[in-house]
Amino acid sequence: MKGVKVDVFTQKVEFKRTKTTNLATGEVTYGAWNQAEGLWIAFDAPVYDNYETDTIKVNNKTVTPDTANETARIDYTAKRENLTEEKVVKRVINIYKDGQKVDQHVQSVTFKRTNIKNLATGEITYGEWDEPSKMLDDYRGPEFENYDSPSNRYVPRTAVSATTEDLEVNMYYTAKVATSIEQKTVVRTIQLYFPDGTFKKVTQQVTFKREVKTNLATGEKEYGAWDMDKNTLPEYKVDQVENYEPSQSVVEAVVVTPETAGNWTVDIYYNAKIATEVEQKIVLRRILMHFPDGTVKEVTQQVTFKREVKTNLATGEKEYGAWDMDKNTLPEYKVDQVENYEPSQSVVEAVVVTPETETLTVDIYYNAKTATEVEEKVALRQILLHLPDGTVKEVTQQVTFKREVKTNLATGEKEYGAWDIEEGTLPEYQVDQVENYEPSQSVAEAMVVTPETAGNWTVDIYYNAKTATEVEEKVALRQILLHLPDGTVKEVTQQVMFKREIKTNLATGEKEYGAWDIEEGTLPEYQVEQVENYEPSQSVVEAMKVTPETAGNWTVDIYYN
């Protein structure tokens, strides 16, 4: 702030005198000054953050009407602070094995300089670094067994300055690798056992190869792809022998993989030829419907079973296969309906049969129908809550009585069963409460009902607002204060109290005001006390009529002279 005015503080002493001008002659006559001298009081220099001054105070000075105006100047200079700055320049040498960092070597040099900071403006003046340059030592990377060293394993000695960015050197070591060839062989042996007891062997094979690289540092192996140019064991047509059937006529070609490598054996046997025929067996079910008019309707269902019979053409021996059981069910049959009659069964169920099952017969007879219904009686009570907001909440309670009624459809005669319950109860209901309202009844009592008394009832609940009563008071108060000659004060208090009742509707907040207990009252006349040889400012305080509307506080002060 030096040289820039930032504050002005003005001190003045004012001198006055009378100036008289003769209007005829223009002569001026001056009177005496109102004071011979005045004082400019001492002034302490203000304090400004981060500034300092040599002038701490401007001293007192006596002035007269002849003293000229003066200006006292206080100059400030900004405070300064010395700062030490350090700059570290690093060279980081990272050691990697197969791309994985395993070690780190850090070299560094430190430069220093002193800077000056202007505490008022924040401006910094930078000094010179302690040295223009410094040296980072050379470094030779380690050797690792079974690893190839990188070309930059040696890092030379290097000069750096304070402006040099941090350096990074990455040394990548790669593991040495040994290569070998892995083989897997798939072998299939086909063995033919001829009917005369002789034996023939046919051998097929496929060999797979792949390259295996072994990391000599970790022992980890990297497997190449298998050579899949030849991956098929070829088809083999089995030798034929007259009047004999081989267990299979062809050994199919098969594609193999290194994962399926191993040894397989296929045995071929020869059996005499067989003649095959089909045997049948039929199972019957007769459904006989005996109608009310005396006629009989017959429905016939059947299942046919089949099985294969093999005959050894050389020996005549027969081999029986399993029965074909895909269709082994006599289906469900829905019995014919006759109006107003009920069959002894409406459905002839499906049934599973076997070749050993004998013929089945089902007889159906018809009886007159009966209609059955359920009669209900309901005892119903509706509780209607007429809520203060105008809405109605309905609570429904009911007991239902049931019994079975059977009607002969031919004669119309009815047969009544017993009611499922002899009596029931419409339960007690606790009426919902509404804040600041009183329901017309708090409980709808429980009610016992029977089928004979069952009917409909309605219970209406209404809500009335609750009321709170309080007493309001108003006081008309007059204080008469007698300020006695000895300095003490005597207080005389007069009052009239008015009261009335206020009823508040707790639901709406509306208030109903009663009449005041008295329409008006009187603060009585007061004869002021006499003190010997003294006269009070008034000898009587007059009586005063007051009402609830004019009630307030009054003070009357009496002084003695």
The number of distinct β-strands equals: 52
Return the domain count: 6
What is the general shape?
Answer: flat
Instruction: State the helix count.
Output: 0
Keywords:
Immunoglobulin-like; 0% helix; mainly beta; flat; 6 domains; 561 residues; 5-stranded mixed beta sheet
Describe this structure in words.
With 561 residues, the chain is mainly β. It has six domains: 1-78, Immunoglobulin-like; 80-175, Immunoglobulin-like; 178-272, Immunoglobulin-like (Sandwich); 275-364, Immunoglobulin-like, CATH 2.60.40.4300; 371-465, Immunoglobulin-like; 468-559, Sandwich (Immunoglobulin-like), CATH 2.60.40. Helices cover 0% and strands 55% of the residues. The protein has no helices and 52 strands. The strands form 19 sheets. A five-stranded mixed beta sheet has the order 11-10-9-17-14, with no helix packed on it. A hairpin with a 6-residue loop joins strand 1 (19-21) and strand 2.
